[in-house]
Amino acid sequence: MPLWGSAASAPPAAEGDAARAPSGSAGGSGGGGGGVKVIRSLLPTRRRLRLDPPAKLYFPYEPGKQVRSAVRIKNISKSHVAFKFQTTAPKSCFMRPPGSVLAPGESIIATVFKFVEHPENNEKPLDKCKVKFKIVSLKVKGPVEYVPELFDEQKDQVAVEQILRVVFLDAERPSPQMDKLKRQLAEAEAALEARKKPPEDNSPRIVGEGLVIDEWKERRERYLARQQIEGVDSV
């Protein structure tokens, strides 16, 4: 039984059209459009996104705790692309961000949170997790704001980018996967903190009701101080 709805297959009418096609038309330039549709349906979908890691989500194995994984998502197409996560375990997993819109060449590190259940027989099921995640994409026109309804309005244009399998890592054993995960999580946290900060205001700071600029005020104070000193000297 599939975890998600299977991809749309070639319409049944295509086979009928091919069967009713005149003899000699098969393989020729005069063939019906049904055969073209069947061929197109068999071609692999062109990727809009590049994932790193490409097919797995690595989590530290810590039963009874909420753990994190990360995946870098990059738009490798020439247009803006919206993406969103789907999972087979929505009650124990969530994603940050759950979706977004990426400009051509733009990338983002998404963080995935998962609660790890205690094993039934005190075993470490490092390779027995059945939870899966799916990333779907949609080509959009220009830099639009991400809303989940984008995918409902254009269901026929939604493409499945990748189904990610959950892999648990021994949290007490160093590994290249664990080192890379820590780096990606740190980068994701830094990007999140940067987005929280208000944009820097490089304009001159204005005091009071916007009539005196700090620099001018300092110059005036220095000028008055010099006037006082010169006045004392003259006396």
Which short descriptors sum up this protein?
single chain, 235 residues, alpha+beta, Immunoglobulin-like, five-stranded mixed β-sheet, 5 helices, 28% helix, disordered N terminus, phosphoprotein
Describe the structure.
The protein has 235 residues and is α+β, with helices and mostly antiparallel strands. The chain has a domain at 49-194: Immunoglobulin-like, CATH 2.60.40.10. 28% of the residues lie in helices and 28% in strands. It contains five helices and eleven strands. It has helices spanning 12-20, 33-42, 149-153, 176-196, 214-234; strands spanning 49-52, 56-60, 66-75, 81-87, 93-96, 99-102, 107-115, 132-139, 159-169, 206-207, 212-213. The strands form three sheets. It has a five-stranded mixed beta sheet. The protein has a four-stranded antiparallel beta sheet with strand order 1-3-7-5, with helices on one face. β10 (206-207) and β11 form a beta hairpin. α1 (12-20) packs across α2. It is flat. The chain starts with 11 loop residues before the first helix and ends with a helix. InterPro entries: Ig-like_fold, MSP_dom, PapD-like_sf, VAP.
Globular, elongated, flat, extended or rod-shaped: what is the shape?
Answer: flat
Q: Which parts are unreliable, with pLDDT below 50 for 5 consecutive residues or more?
A: 1-30
| Main beta sheet | 5 strands, mixed
The tally of helices reads 5
Q: Tell me which CATH architecture of the domain at 49-194 applies here.
A: Sandwich
Order of helices and strands: HHEEEEEEEEHEHEEH
* Oligomeric form: single chain
Our Rg estimate from Cα atoms comes to: 30 Å
Category by helix and strand content = alpha+beta
Binned, the helix content reads 25-40%
CATH class of the domain at 49-194: Mainly Beta
CATH topology of the domain at 49-194: Immunoglobulin-like
CATH superfamily of the domain at 49-194: Immunoglobulins
Number of strands: 11
Protein name: MSP domain-containing protein
Function: May play a role in vesicle trafficking.
Region (Disordered): 1-37
GO cellular component, one term: plasma membrane
